[in-house]
Amino acid sequence: MDGTPSEELQRVNLLLSEFSKIVANSCAQAGLGRGQTPFGRPSNFVALLDVRHLHVIVDRAPAGAMPSQRYVDRRPRGETIALESLLGGAVRELGFLNPIRVGFPVSLLQDTCEARRHHLNAVAKELCQKSLDMTKIERLNLPPGYQHYARLFPRFLADHPHQERNVLLMMRFRPGHQYRSIANALRKELAICDLELLRADDKNYSDDLWENVCLYMLGCQYGVAVFEEIDTRRFNPSVALELGFMMAHNKRCLILKDSRMERMPTDIVGKLYEEFDTYDIEASLTRCARKWIHDVGLDS
């Protein structure tokens, strides 16, 4: 470690060793294996001290060969290192693929075992939660070009943790009894099979409208597209756009057509759909939803 006595380097190593064991225990209790946390497998890391903190930057990706370990002491310069600089430098200068930072007060190197263990337990719990969140996001297998949505998914999955049971409702959203009845009838029937019906206007996880819609489409395994002419005969292209996105990503969708519509939009012609009656919404939608749930195999 640059400019750091060997005795203090030993304290750093002991702290990290103790922390690794606590992380392993915490993750085991949370149902995570050792290999699912950066401290549970051989990984590249940097331990850096500034005047206030011991920063540990670990690569989430496992080391390809022998893990690289670096120790740097910046306290003689009187520096306080910014988090963004640390993570950015790990990627640019050290080649880290997916770094995570864990921080400890420098005073922790001198604390008694009991006081230190209390602090390490709190940090380990937070790290395990981050690892759980990242594991859930990795299981989503975000398609190429959409990996940047990983930053939004922790909040989305906190509200809707079972992506494999999420169903996106794609329809024209307007005030009115019939629109509410459509959503309520579908939600009620899907809930019987532990399926959660979501609408892209339920909550804003992003300030960008399309990004928020994309997040919902990526976060739902299934979809329901509703084509209707309740109060206008103008075609709503958003429903077709969202349905196309879902189908392009191999997500099974129930397509519903208002029985009073003369024809479906051109882009949907040739697709299998179910007809429902806007004057008998609950009964007709219940029938359509039950048939689709059975056909897809979600009732087993």
Q: Kindly report the oligomeric state of this protein.
A: single chain
Kindly report the average pLDDT value.
Answer: 86
Distance between the termini: 59 Å
**Which CATH architecture of the largest domain would you pick?**
3-Layer(aba) Sandwich
Please give the largest β-sheet. Answer: 5 strands, parallel
The helix/strand series, from N terminus to C terminus, equals HEEEHEHHEHEHEHEEH
What is the count of DSSP helices, taking H or I runs of 4+ residues?
Answer: 8
Provide the CATH top-level class of the largest domain: Alpha Beta
Which segments are poorly predicted (pLDDT under 50) over 5 or more consecutive residues? Answer: none
Number of domains: 2
* Estimated share of beta-strand residues: 15-25%
Estimate the global geometry from the Cα principal axes.
elongated
CATH fold call of the largest domain: Rossmann fold
Give the helices and strands, then pairings.
Blueprint: H1 6-29, E1 45-49, E2 53-59, E3 69-73, H2 83-92, E4 99-105, H3 113-139, H4 153-159, E5 166-170, H5 177-191, E6 196-199, H6 209-218, E7 222-227, H7 237-248, E8 253-258, E9 274-276, H8 281-296
Parallel strand pairs: 1-3, 5-6, 5-7, 7-8, 8-9
Antiparallel strand pairs: 1-2, 2-4
